Structures are given as C-alpha cells and as structure tokens.
Amino acid sequence: MHIIELLKALLLGFVEGMTEFAPVSSTGHMIIVDDMWLQTTEFLGKYSANTFKVVIQLGSILAVIVVFWKRLFSLIGLYKIEGEHDASGTHKLKLRHVLIGLLPAAVLGLLFEDFIDENLFSIETVIIGLAVGALLMIAADKLGPKEPKTTSLDQITYRQAALVGLFQCISLWPGFSRSGSTISGGVFLGMNHRTAADFTFIMAVPIMFGASFLSLVKNWDNIHASDFGFYAVGFIASFVFALLSIRFFLKLINKIKLVPFAIYRLVLAAVLAIIVYM
Predict the structure, then answer these.
(1) Whole-angstrom Cα distance, residue 141 to residue 138?
(2) How many CB atoms lie within 10 A of CB 129?
C-alpha cells in the first residue's frame, strides 16, 4: 500500500466524517471527491471501493455512539437519565420513537436498494439533490414555527417521530442529505433545530449501522488483507473527524440554523453543474 493511497484513504475519511452529519450530503460529497477526483476504484476495484465506503461510515457511526452514549444506553434500559420527561410528565423519548422514525426509510431502502445503487449514484442526481434539498432547508427556516414548542428530546411525540421518518425517506435520493431532510422535517413540525438534530443523530445509529452491516456482509469477499491499512486509515479518520464535526455542529445549529448550509449546497450545485454541463 503506497503512501499516496493512504493519503487518499485519509482524505475520504475526512470527507465522510465532516459531512455525514452536517446537512450537506455525505454521499454527494463522496461521489464528488472519489468519482470525480480520487477514483479509488482504479486501484481497489469497484466492489472493494464500495466496501471501503461502508467501513468508513462505521467510523462515523461510532462517533455518534460516543457523543450520545448516555441517551442511546437509556433507550435500551442500560442507563438512567434524570428528568426524562417534560413538565407534564406525558412524554419521554423511548426506543419506540426511534423505531417509528426509522421504519419508513428502512423499508423503502430495502425495497429500492438495487434501483438506487444502479440508477441514482451519479453527479447529475447529486446536483439535483443538493439544490432541491437546499430549498427544503430554506423553507424550513422561513416557514417553520418562530417559537418552537418542542425543545428537548423528551418532548417529541410519536406523531412527530413518524413524520420526521417520512422526511428521512427523501434522503434516499443521493445529495439530499439524511440530516438535512430530517432536521428540516423536525423544524416544520415544531422542534427547535438542536432537538431535531439530536433526534436525527440518534435515529442514524440503527439505520446506518443496519445498512452498513448488510452491505458489509454482502461485500465481505471483497475485503483483502492487503487493503487493511487503507481501510484502517479511512475508518480512524472518519471517526475522529465525525466526532469533531458532531460536537461543533450541535453547538452552532440553534444559532446559525439551516440557511448557511443551504447556501453552501446551492453554490456547490452550481459549480458542479458548470463543470458537468459546460
């Protein structure tokens, strides 16, 4: 494994970690950076390159577990969080909220996985996803409630969880972004941005882990001992940068909201369109 290849693994891990949970579309950025520039398929092969993307995504998932371990453990009864209810005592975030939220996208993802892989992973579809997703985020900021009533995870209702889950289905289109879609949905439904982001990240653990696990099993034969260093560098980079990205994002999201990310997406979509079509 040459140093140049390890640097490519580091860069892809950086891109995955920094963009997986920001509302800018990690899938879109990976397609842009890898397909248009690094082209890891040339030395890994198509299937091994796809497996590498699964491995580094697991690094990002591990970062979410580190940040939200108390809340995640509380959902399965392994940790007690004080005050896990709102003032009326009628709500408390339960595992059922998370399962209800992830069910729609999980079902559609399983049903249309092959179609999505074969037809939607291209620069052209990413451009559409970036632009339309940006408009959704701007609409959420401008049209959502000015004073959100749901300001903590323990105030989220089953109805909100289900509807956020429907918004998550949009992110099956590459470029839309899981966090961009679900945070926008949460804001429309009366959550503040931080609560919507927290719920998005918690939902991401089972659905991303499940999707990554299935993909890893499916592509297990494509993992070769000679590629271990490449995978390891990408995994560690993804974990470290995702950890930094999540903490930074959660501190800022209630202040800056979604419009700055939407503007970045529109600029990126415009630049890509110029490159591809001119």
Answers:
(1) 5
(2) 26
Closest CA to 269 of 15, 28, 22, 34: 28
Residue-wise pLDDT for 101-159, tens only, equals: 999 999 998 899 889 988 998 899 999 999 999 999 999 999 999 999 999 999 999 99
Residues 6+ apart with CB under 8 A from 152: 86, 195
The pLDDT tens digits for 44-74 are 666 567 788 888 999 999 999 999 999 999 9
Q: What is the 8-class DSSP label of residue 242?
A: H
Residue 72 · residue 65 · CB < 8 Å: yes
d(CA 250, CA 235): 22
Buried b (16+ CB within 10 A) or exposed e, 67-84: bbeebbebbeeeeeeeeb
Contact 250, 21 (CB under 8 A): no
Longest dimension (CA), the chain: 60
Say how many C-beta atoms besides its own lie within 10 A of residue 18's C-beta.
21
**Cα separation values, 94 from 44, 73, 182, 202, Å:** 42, 11, 18, 11
